[in-house]
Amino acid sequence: MKHSPSHSSHCSDCAGAVQRLPRNAGRAMIWIYRHTLSPLVGYNCRHLPTCSVYGDEAIERFGLWGGITEGERRAIFRRRGIRLPYENHEDEDGDGGAPDTLRDLWDQRTQLVDGHMKWTSSTPVSFRGHTTTPQRIGFQLDRGRQPVGIVRRTCLVKGCVLPAHLADQAERNALRKVAA
Questions:
Q1: What phi-psi label fits residue 52: left (phi over 0), alpha (psi between -120 and 50 degrees) or beta?
Q2: Which of 11, 91, 109, 114 fits 98 for a cystine, CB–CB 3.0-4.6 Å?
């Protein structure tokens, strides 16, 4: 008995879904970790992207086995302070002073001016292959968690990135409720 063309394409769709099942299960485990355990222990990873984000991207790209191997290898090396040979070690600006952590990046590129903080480099910021803003970096370093939504300054000084003068969407919503 021969299969019709539509039946064989349906079978190949099923085969693809079955092949992606381990990959999707691994990514689901990371999603569960990031939304349950990670908030309980605190968002205190000093690396960007975090190991869970990196692992999720690696599983998506290389599959469950390759992704776990890559993610675990990176986490082990990071804990020991060893930089992987294939990671980009050069600063995006080409000045050769590649920061190791977000804190190093922040310290290198901010300047305190009259009670406000100025970002002294170009924006948006590219760090370890991810693009972000100085406001998000300052917020994350100060609060120890990823910001929710857009981070905006609460002072009137244009370009200020002083963490005490920044608020994410969740903080702005909470302030609105208190004011109401």
A1: alpha
A2: 91
The tally of domains found in the chain comes to 2
pTM given for the model: 0.47
* CA–CA distance, 52 with 65 (Å, rounded to integer): 15
93 part of a folded domain: no
**How many angstroms separate the CA atoms of 146 and 169, rounded?**
11
- The bridge status of strand 152-153 relative to strand 110-113 is unpaired
- For 61-108, write each residue's pLDDT tens digit: 877 767 666 666 666 666 666 665 555 444 444 444 567 788 888 888
The mean pLDDT of 114-130, rounded to a whole number, is 83
Judge if 62 and 114 occupy the same domain: no
User: Tokens representing 11?
Assistant: 């079978």
